[in-house]
Amino acid sequence: MKEISGTSDLYTKNIRMNWNIITSNDQLDLIEQESSKTPVVIFKHSTRCSISSMAMNRFERAWDENNGIKAYYLDLIQYRDIYDAIAEKFGVVHQSPQVIVLKDGQVIYNDSHMGISVNDIQSAAL
Question: Which of 61, 72, 66 is nearest to 117 (CA)?
Fold first, then answer.
């Protein structure tokens, strides 16, 4: 399990996923290209928001590492400029917390807050 930089010790003790961390705008082109081979989910998380922490915890508990979807994580506090780039590149209005699922370079699922559903993501992506 990968520790997520910028989160509290209390939170990192509960991480259940091996996240791929987004740290630069340049990664967005690679993620878009990668989505033509395998579906990709981007989880946008505010480390200062209790609702975002709840949504992420629910997501991680329901996630199956072997579901064929690659998971990326964006810390909205540490990398503020990237969420604007995501909104512009993929045509999705920014929200927090939010998941965006890409397949073949297109957004196939987008939801936020307690509407985020691993079952819905898997149904849309596979």
Answer: 61
